[in-house]
Amino acid sequence: MGERGVPRAERRRRTEEKILGAARTLFAEVGFERATIRAIARAAGVDPALVMQYFGTKQELFQQAARVTPVADGELTAEEVVEHVLASLSVKMGEVPQGSLAMMRSMLTHPEAAASARQVLGEQIDRLAAAIPAEDARLRAALLTTIMLGVAVGHQLLELDELRGVSSDEIARLLRPSLRALTAEQVAGDRTG
Amino acid sequence: MGERGVPRAERRRRTEEKILGAARTLFAEVGFERATIRAIARAAGVDPALVMQYFGTKQELFQQAARVTPVADGELTAEEVVEHVLASLSVKMGEVPQGSLAMMRSMLTHPEAAASARQVLGEQIDRLAAAIPAEDARLRAALLTTIMLGVAVGHQLLELDELRGVSSDEIARLLRPSLRALTAEQVAGDRTG
DNA sequence: TCATTCGCTCAACAGGCGTTGACTCAACGA
DNA sequence: TCGTTGAGTCAACGCCTGTTGAGCGAATGA
Is the CB of B38 less than 7 A from some atom of nucleic acid strand C? Predict the structure, then answer.
């Protein structure tokens, strides 16, 4: 199967990367429980036992495959926050990293993925809250985050017909006023009915 | 174990309901794949074989347990749509029917659940779109729906700390301007930067 | 050159899964 | 009263899962 002259260390790195790639794809497509070690190994062109040897456990394989690199950011204004969130949604709309998709796909059924999701979302909420000038900044930031989560789920994972093929710009344009309404401090009173 | 004097038909109905209840709870808590027939039967105080005898297949059990009764509605104004959506979120916040939770919990990993979710959400989008006075009404309705989906997922299933114990009224109050921004036709131009 | 390392495969294990068929026994209808 | 029905159980099936230990053969370093 492979490249006779390649040194061991390099071969090992390549194989590990092949496995991680296959794992990311499968975890993203079918979630943690339906993505079997055997299927991942097959997709990577490798024996299932090798996957275990390299990653020890399906759990650890998932953790490495679904690791999301946290985007550390400086201080932002409220308006910048909106644009930042909108930009993160699109990232060219469909080029969302597979690791993130894997985590999202699994977060409702796999406890470890849920914990990761909570942490990642929690960090984003913290970052956003710092830029929202309101006493209930954390709650507003949480809603902002869940809004984007919902749109991402509906679009990337559920693949709702209505969102298919819609450009990220158009979604951003429609969503912008809604997000701004959350980041701007409410002054006017409102009625319930 | 059971009520000697109860007639057969009644016993049968009660047992079926016990199984469905246990199924709803487990599907809602851990999703389709992790909710085993054995665990459901145990929770219902019944033999696993009986579950199969009554429902035929785990798939059919899920379909019956996660059946969501569509709320058919008359025509609404745009503002009524917002209130309707907000009200549906709360339904006393935490008393979301377990069937719906089961469907939501499973929709990212179980194809059948995904199909159901698409259908239910699609119907809601249709209903909402009819009340939104804009050319891109369907897209706006879809975003409205995914927004509420995200909030529900974050609150009910992911149980984000920031949303825990927050009253539905407060969430509705914060979300209202955002939703109205989506239902009201945009007139003002907007800048991207 | 030769012993050693190590990437990788093979065959198997134990356990859990959905599902089935034979069975028990109380409720039923005549 | 007695045969029939049907609710419910029991033990087992075949399959698939994550995981393991023994082994093969090429790259490695002395």
Answer: yes
Alpha-helical runs (H) found in chain B: 8-34, 37-44, 48-55, 58-65, 78-90, 98-106, 111-129, 137-152, 168-183
- Give residue-wise pLDDT tens across range B93-113: 556 788 989 999 999 999 999
Partner-chain residue, chosen from A31, A143, A152, that has the shortest CB–CB distance to B109: A31
List, chain by chain, residues whose CB lies under 7 Å from nucleic acid strand D: A 4-5, 7-9, 35-39, 48-49, 52-53, 56-59; B 1-2, 8-9, 11-12, 15, 45-50, 53
Lowest mean pLDDT among A54-68, A165-179, B68-82, B127-141: B68-82
Which residue in the set B30, B141, B153 is minimally distant from A109, CB to CB? B30
Q: A112-121, A151-160, B20-29, B182-191: lowest mean pLDDT where?
A: B182-191
Domains of chain A: 8-65 (1.10.10.60), 78-183 (no CATH)
Chain B: residue nearest A136 by CA? B174
Structure tokens at A82: 């909106």
Residue indicated by tokens 């809250």: A129
Of residues B102 and A73, more confidently modeled: B102
